[in-house]
UniProtKB/TrEMBL annotation:
Name of this protein: protein disulfide-isomerase
GO molecular function, one term: protein disulfide isomerase activity
Any single GO BP term: response to endoplasmic reticulum stress
Lineage: superkingdom: Eukaryota
């Protein structure tokens, strides 16, 4: 009797295990009711002949058991996409093209699916689904907490939703928060927190809102940005008449936030909060407008001035988005940054800003690496006019040139060599005239060097011997250029290390890198090869002798 009872008990336990309720078995008929009655469902679309599906099955079952044991409100399900036309059509509606394909359904909505991209082993499935199920937004109870929340990051999004009455809007807000946090195409490492308050009374006070109506209402989404007293508002109302779906609402909000995901004026500071924003700003292809202040008070004044100019920039480019794609047009939206000079010594050196002449503003044209320094940085009107001149192409770039304190005259000739045995010295001012002007020779050989470069010092005797060989030659000139004290005026020279030897050929405005042996003879032959190309160069070489010696 005991043995028979034990057998029956084991059979009952086995039947219970076989009928484990932890993985839902769905089909086209049961799919919508199952999803509609649960807040979070992960459905694996499978095929019975699929080897990957067979490997997933025990892992999926184990993951479901672990989630149930942890009390998580996450349901796992499978659906055989090959069992009848209705199942196949359901799989096609959710873009299932291979097996297994896992889709996530939230908030009882069987029409909006998210693709699961993650591990397939049980522990990995559990960890990933728990992360995805967690709310991306922060729920805030008091006005004091909300005030702290909006000050925690340079850009913050705050939604005003009142419980069940605003549930559809709140779900769209949460979906946008998740999409912004998880989107692989979103800006790298840009953290924009999304928060929710239950009533307008908990919204932090601000000077003003964009738009005519200043009263905060339920359903409003507000964007707070550093250095700005005005808050931008998004409302779902304009989507109501279109009977927009949750995904359409989410996408509209996401687009609105993405356009404003950096403050109009970013802080150039060592504060870790600013790093992600600065990475986004400097990764943008458009020009950068960078302000340097002599103290914190001036920085704030400059930020407010720049914010007014940036506001007009933003309005123009939201109404007329960039069409250049790669950002190679001068009309690409500018990005604004401001910092205290003493905290940004490296940036001062890079942009060649005199720390004794502050405040100053720099435009950095990332297309050409040109820099434009505005010494009088006072007033939004002056800044706007200066930026307009840059866009019109009438602004002269600021060039760092050895021995010159100001932007001004352009000497047509390179400086004389310090001795007869040395190459002539070329500086940034006058570079173009010296190599391509009316009095310039057919070719100019240029050594780009730095005074601290040991290889340059070793190479100097060889290079000076080449210069001596062409001392009286009307068609070729040999010069040196201190790239540590001067801006290299043309990106085509592509100077990435020292010494770098380049040849400029006037006839076709071309640049040629020298990559041969660092010997006097090889360099002389390189120059002669380019002298007079297309204009009688062979005759000149013949005059010097066929053996290649001068």
């Amino acid at each position: 009797m005991f043995r028979r009872a034990l057998v029956l008990l084991l059979l009952a336990l086995g039947a219970a295990a076989a009928a484990s309720p932890e993985v839902l078995r769905l089909d086209a008929d049961s799919f919508e009711p199952a999803v509609a009655s649960r807040p979070f469902v992960a459905v694996a679309f499978v095929a019975p002949w699929c080897a990957h599906c067979k490997r997933l099955e025990p892992e999926w079952r184990a993951a479901a058991s672990k989630l149930a044991a942890r009390g998580r409100n996450i349901a796992l399900a499978t659906l055989d996409a090959t069992a009848g036309d209705a199942n196949a059509a359901l799989a096609a509606r959710h873009d299932v093209r291979g097996f297994p394909s896992i889709r996530i359904f939230r908030d009882g909505d069987p029409k909006s699916a998210e693709e699961y991209v993650g591990p397939r082993a049980a522990d990995g499935v559990v960890a990933t689904l728990e992360r995805l199920e967690a709310k991306a937004e922060t729920f805030i109870n008091t006005k004091r907490d909300a005030e702290a929340f909006v000050k925690a990051k340079p850009v913050v999004v705050l939604g005003v939703f009142d419980g069940e009455r605003d549930a559809p809007l709140a779900r769209a807000f949460g979906a946008a928060a998740r999409a912004f946090a998880d989107d692989p195409d979103a800006p790298d490492d840009v953290s924009v927190p999304f928060g929710v308050v239950a009533s307008a009374a908990a919204v932090p006070e601000t000077d003003s809102f964009f738009g005519e109506e200043r009263k905060v209402r339920r359903g409003d989404v507000l964007i707070y940005r550093e250095f700005e007293t005005r808050v931008e508002r998004f409302r779902f109302e304009h989507l109501a008449e279109k009977n927009a779906s949750r995904d359409e609402r989410k996408d509209a909000l996401l687009s609105f936030v993405s356009l404003r995901a950096t403050p109009r004026v970013a802080a150039l500071t060592r504060d870790p909060r600013s790093r992600s924003v600065l990475r986004r700003v400097f990764a943008h292809p458009g020009p950068k407008v960078i302000g340097f202040a002599d103290d914190e008070s001036t920085r704030r004044e400059m930020a407010e001035t720049m914010a007014r100019v940036a506001e007009e920039e933003e309005k123009e480019h939201i109404s007329k988005p960039d069409t250049s794609g790669a950002g190679d047009a001068p009309t690409t939206r500018a990005r604004f940054v401001v910092g205290v000079a003493a905290e940004n010594a490296n940036a001062l050196r890079f942009f060649d800003v005199d720390p004794e002449r502050l405040p100053a503003v720099v435009i950095h044209d990332t297309r050409t690496d040109a820099r434009y320094v505005l010494r009088d940085a006072s007033g939004a009107d002056a800044l706007a006019e200066w930026l307009a001149a840059f866009r019109a192409g009438t602004l002269a770039p600021t060039v760092r040139s050895a021995g010159d304190e100001t932007s001004g005259a352009t000497p047509p000739e390179a400086e004389a060599a310090p001795s007869a045995a040395s190459a002539a010295i070329l500086v940034a001012k006058g570079f173009r005239d010296a190599v391509a002007g009316a009095e310039a020779p057919a070719v100019t050989l240029i050594q780009f060097h730095a005074p601290w470069c040991g290889h340059c010092e070793s190479f100097a005797p060889t290079y000076n011997a080449v210069a001596a060989a062409f001392r009286d030659d009307r068609d070729a000139r040999v010069v040196t250029f201190d790239a540590d004290a001067n801006d290299v005026p043309d990106a085509r020279f592509d100077v990435k290390g020292f010494p770098a030897v380049r040849l400029y050929r006037k006839a076709d405005d071309s640049v040629h890198a020298y990559e041969g042996a660092r010997t006097t003879k090889a360099l002389i032959e390189f120059v002669r090869k380019h002298v007079g190309v297309g204009s009688g160069g062979d005759a000149r070489r013949g005059e010097r002798g066929d053996d290649g010696e001068l």
